[in-house]
Amino acid sequence: MTSPFEALLPSTERALLHRVAVAQSEGRAPSLVGAVARDGRPVWSGARSCTEEDAPDADTQYRIGSLTKTFTAVLVLRLRDEGLLDLNDPLDKYLPGTGVGEATIAQLLSHSAGLAAESPAPWWERPPGSLRPELADVLGERPVVHPAGRRHHYSNTGYTLLGSLIEAVRGKPWEEVLRCELLEPLGMRRTSCDPQQPHASGWAVHPWADALMSEPAQDLGLMAPAGQLWSTAADLCRFAGFLVEGDERVLGPGSVREMRTASAPAEAGDWDSTYGLGLQIVRRNGRTLIGHTGSLPGFVACLWADAEEGVAAVVLANATSGPLPAAAAADLVHIVVEAEPRFPEPWRPMPVVDEALLELTGAWYWGTSAFGLKLVAECGVELYPLSGNGRGSRFRAGQNGTWTGLDGYFAGETLRVVRRPDGGLIHLDLGSFVFTRDPYDPAAEVPGGVDEGGWRGLSS
């Protein structure tokens, strides 16, 4: 069946272009590009510019700043998946002598290692990276500002260390590893460490006048893994599709889901924003979005994806401040999802029905709380509260007839079927919780036992 999303409706396209036009005008950006992808395919792009003869398109390069960090995180996860490191390993195991080697790789990825946000003065984004030829120059005399693992504290120096970690384990420059292991397999030919024509120039816009000043575009040296890259809206739409679906040539679906899972506590009062492994996780317009923002002098960028809806948006602009790409990109996703909701997959019967599993389906009781258990093709079984309130999880078949929780309260916990010697079903044991066919079934091993008097009315 042909996808209904190969092209957007004209009314949707006009709404998207209007949002881009507002972002460029109100943000006073010399130029701004927006693009949308659905189910991994680009479906729209639009741009606005202060000069008609220099109008950009989805193939125009912009600097993407800290969006680079997500690329670096993917390369680290690749090393983990190959068995070359463990995310719980201390940095010192692979990169000794930094002075912050007790921080784990996972903590560095999630910005919870307690490292300082920035390198010592001067501000690293405008001078050339050659000012900091060694990691000691990047870290400075006070590289740690918080206890490791206690809070989320965004750190550019942490991702500098991750870039050096990649080089130490691979024995190759970070840029070469990035190109060979990520950019080329995903077909991102317009993403690079140095600008390639056609590319936008970086500008600062005067805060109190409609005047411009050129911004420098420096090579960041050792800090490149934290913010060096140039890319296009089209390439970043491809990258967004990868972050939603995964790609076995780069990183499988399970590992990209791991990247999208919150790994760091939210800052106090900021419950709509947290961080995974190299990915920001935010709530916008009632939706959960994953991706990253980025900025360097002269440029701002954002990529957001709604993994549940399969819609992603990219916004790139060439101004140091003013445009709000995070808000604009979130609105582009919202416009498409609201105007053209995705079609649900057709219902189809399971290819094979296991009679032994079918016996487990139906109502179960934890004490007096009613739960339903059903078979689901994509993972195995799902246990859920029938009242809508309570703890539920999906389970995947494990060893020796057991099941392992995939999400919710019982994630990682073991579900076990308890039977009589003749094979008859007695109850389910889930992490010591006993689920019975009837509330407090006396035939089951209910913790604390069951009153021999059974159920009764209120006697006079």
Automatic annotation (TrEMBL):
<dbReference type="InterPro" id="IPR056008">
    <property type="entry name" value="DUF7586"/>
</dbReference>
<dbReference type="Pfam" id="PF00144">
    <property type="entry name" value="Beta-lactamase"/>
</dbReference>
<dbReference type="InterPro" id="IPR001466">
    <property type="entry name" value="Beta-lactam-related"/>
</dbReference>
<protein>
    <submittedName>
        <fullName>CubicO group peptidase, beta-lactamase class C family</fullName>
    </submittedName>
</protein>
<feature type="domain" description="DUF7586">
    <location>
        <begin position="353"/>
        <end position="437"/>
    </location>
</feature>
<dbReference type="InterPro" id="IPR012338">
    <property type="entry name" value="Beta-lactam/transpept-like"/>
</dbReference>
<feature type="domain" description="Beta-lactamase-related">
    <location>
        <begin position="25"/>
        <end position="335"/>
    </location>
</feature>
<dbReference type="InterPro" id="IPR050491">
    <property type="entry name" value="AmpC-like"/>
</dbReference>
<dbReference type="Pfam" id="PF24491">
    <property type="entry name" value="DUF7586"/>
</dbReference>
